[in-house]
Amino acid sequence: MSNNQTAYPSSGQPVISVSVALGLLGIVTAALGFVALLGWVLGWPRLASIRADLIPMAPSTALLFLLYGVAVCLRTRMPLSRRTFGVSVAVGCFGALVALLLFTLSCLGIQWSVEHLGLNITGTVGGAPTGHMSPVTAFCFLLVSLSFLTSLSQLGGRRWRTVLGLGFASLLLGSCLIFWLAYLFGTPPLYGRTFIPPALNTVFAFVMLGLALLALAGRSAKLSRKSPGADSGPAFVFLTIFVLLVAGIVTAGSLYLWNHERHYRAEVERQLSAIAQLKVNDLKIGGVPYSIARN
Asked: Fewer CB within 10 Å, N or C, the chain?
């Protein structure tokens, strides 16, 4: 069986649908990294963050998202030739080495200036310095690299490799969904200390990348069995649509609640300020403070 046949088994329309979904997930992941990196280059760090009070995506994180997003699109749209296979292995190994290095340095309390990619980045958010990768993010990139490498069809001839690929992707998704829900319900984790938390757009990009890795691992398992398995195509598409719909509904509801809470808090503060002003006025007699009039 040739490489072209291995990458694109003739299973009909469902496989095309999975390829389209994979391509979209890869494009979204790469776009999130590109926008954040562009914001740092142009001096607009707001592009690297969802809100001004949230920590932005680090340049090193944005670069890895851009690389992995392009790699997912490359594996989706092109046959797994030797060149594509070599590029995929190079991206996976590079991501794993960078993530392991930054995870080790972060655990040791060392903030490497190379992460800024030569850009002038200063400041803190919630007590944590900006422009550096969170150790949580570095650990997630390790999971991404392991799942990405084990999902390569030329490495996926054994069942345990496929199981590892699915397991790493599932662990990535579970971890990121916890942080995502914590962000959406107004309790950003790990803020208020020197420990660098993962950014909200970083968590969202990991969710997109995790879904793509699940599909790649599942496709690798199907190809290793050399059976088309057409039923897995629509299952993944429906799962992706369901996850995106749930994420959209939860995000929209959380943003509405956050906006309502902000306006409610502003109204309460205005009322308290008015009451305080009335109390001050009550303590005055004929324009003279009560303490002076009593004397």
From this structure: C
Q: Residue 125: helix, strand or coil by DSSP?
A: strand
**What number of helices (H) and strands (E) belong to the chain?**
9, 4
Q: Phi and psi (nearest 5°) for 243?
A: -65, -45
Q: What is the pLDDT along the chain (295 residues), one digit of tens a residue?
A: 444 434 444 444 444 466 788 888 899 999 999 999 999 998 888 888 887 778 899 999 999 999 999 999 888 765 567 777 888 888 889 999 999 999 888 888 788 888 888 888 888 887 788 888 988 899 999 989 988 988 875 554 566 777 777 888 888 888 888 888 778 777 666 776 667 888 889 999 999 999 888 888 777 656 555 444 444 444 455 455 555 555 555 555 555 555 556 666 777 788 888 787 777 776 665 555 544 445 5
Residue 252 to residue 85: CA distance in whole angstroms: 39
Name beta bridge partners: 213.
none
Domain assignment present for 292? no
Report the distance separating Cα 74 and Cα 279, nearest Å: 68
Q: Quick one: tokens of 15?
A: 């496989």
Structural domain of 136: 3-233
- Domain for residue 182, yes or no? yes
Q: How many domains are there within the chain?
A: 1
Residue 244 lies inside a defined structural domain of this protein: no
Torsion of CA 283, 285, 288, 293, to 10 degrees: -90
* Cut 0.85: pTM above it: no
- φ and ψ of 232, to 5 deg: -75, -25
| Distance, CA of 200 to CA of 188 (rounded, Å) | 9
Q: Is 193 helix (H, G, I), strand (E, B) or coil?
A: coil
Q: Are 102 and 60 in contact (CB under 8 A)?
A: yes
